[in-house]
Design a protein that fits this description.
Length: 116
């Protein structure tokens, strides 16, 4: 994992340990908390008209929700022993094979799955 993500994971780990919250930070609970925070982020964009910018107050809320989302994501990865950066690169490698630029440029259609 990248140093910054490792440092963030360690900081969250210490925060949780100091409060004896490990018992509540099961993968299931962390995924549910992450989904809730993503929902709060979605709510900030829900009724915007196409191209409508966020005002300063909304941007503040969006930044806070993004902080919550990455916090729960990093915590979940830490609890599961997952390397977020390595797995994101692996997923991008798959997507580059699945969605070659010449075939999918400007297209939102879904590609067939890669063969096993």
């Amino acid at each position: 994992m990248s140093t910054e993500i490792e440092e963030l994971a360690a900081r969250f780990r210490a925060f949780v340990e100091a409060r004896d919250w490990e018992q509540f930070h099961t993968p299931k609970n962390l995924v549910m908390a992450l989904a809730g925070e993503v929902g709060e982020l979605v709510a900030e964009f829900q009724w915007l008209a196409p191209g409508e910018p966020l005002d300063e107050a909304a941007m503040g809320r969006v930044r806070a929700e993004l902080g919550d989302v990455i916090g729960y994501l990093v915590r979940l990865a830490d609890v599961l022993g997952v390397d977020l950066i390595a797995d994101a690169h692996a997923k991008l490698d798959q997507s580059e094979k699945r969605y070659d630029a010449d075939t999918y440029r400007g297209s939102a259609r879904k590609a067939p799955p890669l063969p096993p």
